Structures are given as structure tokens and as C-alpha cells.
């Protein structure tokens, strides 16, 4: 395995067709899914030369914690469909690299078991949907607190699930346990329906910024909103005292036709300038140069979803470790070739939109 895309090719050949189609696909015509990746090609790197790059520092500070890499693992559900250990293997791989893993509400392992797998070096955030039954939402927050999670990531772009043509064509209907949403009110619908059907009926479509305030009142943990793709919403996030924003369009799986995260990253950063709100990004990252471009534009860190899933498919924990190592090595080399000894040396002047580098403002 040489590149991240090698892992996806492996997954194409080895996963059941319905599973691969579900994970790889976007919503509707997949315009946004495809643009998430192609958008990075619109940005060119403007390197600096004659700099001492004999030693490089890839570390990043995120919510006051120091990490060896500005790369984390985004929340993805149904991981036991990729590998028998699923989320447990993912957590161990993230822990071995010292990076953040965000556990999905639709994980196939419990909040507590994943925390145990990640110990002692793991750093976990918990991804939360605000459900129609707010009591269940609060119970998930309490479980994450007790298990030692370091932040709550609330997904805000999913009042309803996006339409996935591939799922309908393939009849995607996995029979998997989702321990964090089973029991009581949720048990029958989770065990008998697909995640998307479940999402549409049980994730609350009435969530507003008042619910973010309610969530903040429940916990002392940092609250991060995931799914912001406009400066206007970023301003609202700032006004509601969130701790972080993940610029994300849900991997192209919700509203089709929205911009790629890398394209809206600058306006989100402009809206949060001068505030304590940290800005991260996910979507379309497949190479170390993609990571570098996002960091140069101002993201504090990036998160990968599908690449980690493909790594899990390949060899479980070892496969995810390999994906992270490839991205780490590619980022390290890109920094050196760009004249940067540290990710902190990156700045927006080092990236230009479009092929005409000569027109870049110096």
C-alpha cells in the first residue's frame, strides 16, 4: 500500500458491494461528493526556498492539548461492517499515533468499550445527534463524560438524512447492533431499520441554536459543531459560545450541490477571527498536500473519514495506522519541499486558487 487511494481500491474489491456503495457514495447526483476531492486540485502551493528544513515539527495544539499530528479521525458509523473489531480497532490505531478519534453515535461498539480500547494514550471526542427524545441525548452526554471523552461534537447538518440512490438500488439494510442508541425507546427501530431510515425518524428536525445552548448547559466539556459551511452560520456559532467548528458537508452525504469545505474554509475563518473558536475541516482529504493546503488556509486540524474506513477494511488497526502514517509522511515531505520547518510556518499566502500563480497577491 503506497497511497491512501490504494486502500479504497482494496475496499472496492473486498467489501460486499452494498456496503462499499453505502460508504463511498454521496447523496443524489454526488456533485458535492466529487467536488470535495476535486476542489483541492484548484489550489496551488507557492513554496518558499532556501529555508532550513532539516528538522520538521508537525505538532498542533487543539483545545489546549498538544498532538503530534494535525490530523484526526472523523466520526463514521457501522465500522464492524469493515472489520470485526470495528471502532475498537480504529480507537487503538488513533491512540497509537496520538491523534483524536471522534466516535460516532452510530458506532458498533459502546462508548465505554471504545474508551477502554483507546486507553491509556487515547484522546476521544464523542459525536452527538440531538434526538427527538432529549433524555436519550442527555444520557449519551453523561456516558461520554463518565468514560473520559474530551469533547462533544454535535452534528448540525442532519435534520433529515440525505437521499442515497446507491442504498436504494442495492437494498442496503445491514443487521448490525448500535449499542449507543439501543435500549428502551430506541431498541426496536434501530434493530429493524437502516441507519438512514432511523435518522429520518428519530434525529430531531426541530433543533435550533437554543438546543446548542441547552447542550452547553449539560456539560463542562468543550462543544464543537460539525456541519458549518457558511460564514453566516459561523457567526451564529460564535454568538452561541461554541468551542470549535468543523467545516464539513457530511462527506457529500446530505444536501447535494453545496460547496466543498476547502472552498468555504476562508469565510468561516473570517467569521471567527479574533474569537476563541477553533476551526477544523473534513471532506475530500486523500493526500498530505491536501492536509497542507487546509492548514495553510487556516484550519487548525483536519479529520479523515472514508480513508480511515478503507484502512480499517484492509487490516483493521494496522490498516488505519498505515493510512495515518502515509498522510503523516506525505505532509512532512510537503512541508520540507515548501520551505516550512513547522505547520505553524504555513499561511494563506502559500496557497493560491487557480492555475495562474503569477497573479497571486504577494
TrEMBL record:
Residues 1-356 form the FMN hydroxy acid dehydrogenase domain. It holds the Pfam family FMN_dh. One of its GO terms (molecular function) is (S)-2-hydroxy-acid oxidase activity. It comes from Patiria miniata (Bat star). The keyword Oxidoreductase applies. InterPro entries: Aldolase_TIM, Alpha-hydoxy_acid_DH_FMN, FMN-dep_DH, FMN_HAD, FMN_hydac_DH_AS. Keywords: Flavoprotein, FMN, Oxidoreductase. It comes from the Eukaryota. This is (S)-2-hydroxy-acid oxidase. One of its GO terms (cellular component) is peroxisomal matrix. One of its GO terms (biological process) is fatty acid alpha-oxidation. The lineage of its organism: Eukaryota, Metazoa, Echinodermata, Eleutherozoa, Asterozoa. FMN binds at residues 75-77, 104, 127, 155, 226, 248, 282-286, 305-306. Its cofactor is FMN. PROSITE patterns: FMN_HYDROXY_ACID_DH_1 (PS00557), FMN_HYDROXY_ACID_DH_2 (PS51349). Belongs to the FMN-dependent alpha-hydroxy acid dehydrogenase family. The active site is at residue 250.
Amino acid at each position: 500500500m503506497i497511497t491512501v487511494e490504494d486502500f479504497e481500491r482494496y475496499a472496492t474489491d473486498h467489501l460486499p458491494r452494498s456496503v462499499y456503495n453505502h460508504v463511498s457514495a454521496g447523496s443524489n447526483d454526488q456533485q458535492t461528493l466529487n467536488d470535495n476531492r476535486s476542489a483541492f486540485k484548484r489550489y496551488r502551493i507557492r513554496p518558499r526556498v532556501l529555508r532550513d528544513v532539516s528538522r520538521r515539527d508537525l505538532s498542533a495544539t487543539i483545545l489546549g492539548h498538544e498532538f503530534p499530528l494535525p490530523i484526526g479521525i472523523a466520526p463514521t458509523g457501522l465500522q464492524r461492517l469493515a472489520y470485526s473489531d470495528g471502532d475498537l480497532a480504529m480507537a487503538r490505531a488513533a491512540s497509537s499515533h496520538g491523534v483524536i478519534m471522534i466516535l460516532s453515535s452510530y458506532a458498533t461498539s459502546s462508548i465505554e468499550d471504545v474508551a477502554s480500547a483507546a486507553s491509556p494514550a487515547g484522546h476521544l471526542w464523542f459525536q452527538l445527534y440531538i434526538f427527538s427524545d432529549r433524555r436519550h441525548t442527555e444520557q449519551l452526554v453523561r456516558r461520554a463524560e463518565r468514560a473520559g471523552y474530551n469533547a462533544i461534537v454535535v452534528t448540525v447538518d442532519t435534520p433529515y438524512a440525505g437521499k442515497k440512490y446507491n442504498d436504494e438500488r442495492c437494498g442496503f439494510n445491514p443487521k448490525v447492533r448500535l449499542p449507543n442508541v439501543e435500549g428502551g425507546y430506541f431498541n426496536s427501530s434501530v434493530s429493524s431499520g437502516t441507519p438512514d431510515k432511523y435518522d429520518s425518524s428519530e434525529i430531531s428536525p426541530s433543533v435550533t441554536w437554543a438546543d446548542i445552548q441547552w447542550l452547553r448547559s449539560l456539560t463542562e466539556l468543550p462543544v464543537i459543531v460539525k456541519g458549518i459551511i457558511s460564514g453566516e452560520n459561523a457567526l451564529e456559532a460564535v454568538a452561541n459560545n461554541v468551542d470549535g467548528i468543523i467545516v464539513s458537508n457530511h462527506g457529500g452525504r446530505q444536501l447535494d450541490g453545496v460547496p466543498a469545505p476547502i472552498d468555504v474554509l476562508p469565510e468561516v475563518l473570517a467569521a471567527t477571527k479574533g474569537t476563541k473558536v477553533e476551526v477544523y475541516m473534513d471532506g475530500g482529504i486523500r493526500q498530505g498536500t491536501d492536509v497542507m493546503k487546509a492548514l495553510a488556509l487556516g484550519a487548525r486540524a483536519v479529520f479523515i473519514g472514508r480513508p480511515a474506513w478503507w484502512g480499517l477494511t484492509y487490516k483493521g488497526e494496522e490498516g488505519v495506522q498505515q493510512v495515518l502514517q502515509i498522510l503523516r509522511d506525505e505532509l512532512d515531505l510537503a512541508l520540507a519541499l515548501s520551505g516550512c520547518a513547522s505547520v505553524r510556518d504555513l499561511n494563506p499566502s502559500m496557497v493560491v486558487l487557480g492555475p495562474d500563480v503569477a497573479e497571486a497577491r504577494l
